[in-house]
Design a protein that fits this description.
By secondary structure, the protein is largely without helices or strands. The protein contains one helix and no strands. It is extended, with a radius of gyration of 16 Å.
């Protein structure tokens, strides 16, 4: 079974420069998000808890509602 490689280290990710793509005014953007399940969120809200086992989740242990949020 194919597997994903291990994620890069924080130092490796910090060395990747941002890539900006300016969009013209009026460009339509869409957000894919979970409306239901164990960690639902509104389309215009940050998620402050869960899922805590996600590969690139920024939440810090232990599992709890945190001040930092993610879209």
């Amino acid at each position: 079974m194919p597997k994903f490689p291990n994620p890069p280290s924080g130092a490796a990710l910090a060395g990747v420069p941002p890539h900006w793509r300016p969009l013209p005014p009026g460009t339509l953007l869409f957000r894919v998000y979970f409306q239901g399940g164990t960690h639902p969120v509104a389309w215009n809200a940050f998620r402050h808890f869960g899922p805590t086992a996600a590969r690139f989740d920024h939440h810090e242990p232990p599992p709890r509602t945190q001040e930092r949020g993610i879209l």
